[in-house]
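INFO batch 0412 | record 1 of 1 | parsing
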Amino acid sequence: MVIVTKQKGESEDRLIARFKRMVTFSGIIQEYRDRSRYKTSEKRKEQKYAVKHKIELEKKRNS
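INFO prediction complete | emitting tokens
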């Protein structure tokens, strides 16, 4: 959870910008996007593909 308190003499626009920056750095938006787009079966599929792809790359590098 991100909590931002207004500092003395700080404008609302600056406060909102600081809040957006903190949310971005904390990874909340990325986690939300990951959770909303994918179901667990799709994640497993992507992980299997990634593993298979890495194995193929290693074979090519070692050849």
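INFO post-check: The chain has a mean pLDDT of 88.
INFO record closed
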